[in-house]
Amino acid sequence: MLSAYNEQQQLFLPYQYSREALQQSRQQMKFYCPQCLQPVQLKIGKYNIPHFAHIANKSCVQLFSEGESKLHYQGKIQLFEWLRKLGHTVKLEPYLPKLSQRPDLLLIKEQQQIAIEFQCSAISHEKWLLRTSGYEKNSIQPLWLFQTPQRQSTQGIQKIFISPIMQKMITTTAQGLSYLVSYDAKTSRFIYWTNLLHVHGHTFIGKVQELAIHKQHFPFYQPTSITKEEFRLYWQLYKKHCKQFVYQRLIHSKKGARDSFLRCSYELRLSLTAMPDYVGVPVKDAEAIPLFPIEWQTILHYFCRGLQLLPHEMDERDIRLFLRQQNVEITDRAVQAIKNYGIVIAKSYQKNDCFPDICEQVYAHLFAIATIY
């Protein structure tokens, strides 16, 4: 823990003192846990950030994240000082008795309380849900900030891997733009993954931007939409991923003619090495369908051929039948994903039935819907 009471019941923050001063304080003062009020030890190592720890076998230990990493301590201190400098009322590691929880930071803003959790280590979905629901049930807004993964260090438009737990932190603006903010305690920078486009599974395409902590406001900045020119790069990366998927499916599929995607491609006379642009189209809500878009859209075209319909001519009953045949859970989002696909390619059908530039239609659907539709 980063704070403890001294004998005068004053909160003592070791990081504010030099190691020499802390050595003297350790000899002259006693410190107590802010939660259980039992004695704690002031630890001053050469490499770790000075902190307090319970004496072994004390009953309070389970309520603390003892053994936290230096990076975690470092990040909490940086975020604490950042919010204080912005003029916010913020507490470091406060114990909330009603919840029996201790957030890394508690921000008090007017009538609102925000519990900030800086997460450096892996956390299970169950533990995340338990802590999040605990805050929400007590009218405290949880804000999870994850340490930026080491592999994600460059800026610009690129393919991004986002773990399942971090995907739960994705926020959507009023304009429908998805983004995620993480914090890198090593560089004291906030990392924005903006204009997120889901590809498949845990893979996204996004625009990565950095902002030094001294330039960051709170609440966080909200991203603006990428330009049509920037989306061209998204399109290229997305189509490259589609080609990789088709190649891997062709090489590794063991189902042969029983592979629905390969069989439908053959029946539609589609070349697997040069799939048309109108299949493999990113659309809103596609995450609700666990199949890769180029797969379910190819199968959808074959399904529509049997009905003698175009995708945008399907009604909801047709869509539900298609999802059922593919063993996909029938949800409102899954139905909407197929409707969205129909809307996008319908606009291209209207332009001489030759899909002159479906990329532009996809950009309008994903990022410029307010100005185009």
From TrEMBL:
Q: Which Pfam families does UniProt cross-reference here?
A: CoiA_N, CoiA_nuc
Instruction: Tell me the domain of life.
Output: Bacteria
Please name the InterPro entries in this protein's record: CoiA-like_N, CoiA_nuc, Competence-induced_CoiA
Specify the Competence protein CoiA nuclease-like domain's residue ranges. 68-218
Q: Where is the Competence protein CoiA-like N-terminal domain?
A: 16-60
Q: What is this protein called?
A: Competence protein CoiA
Q: Which organism is it from?
A: Lysinibacillus xylanilyticus
Give the organism's phylogenetic lineage.
Answer: Bacteria, Bacillati, Bacillota, Bacilli, Bacillales
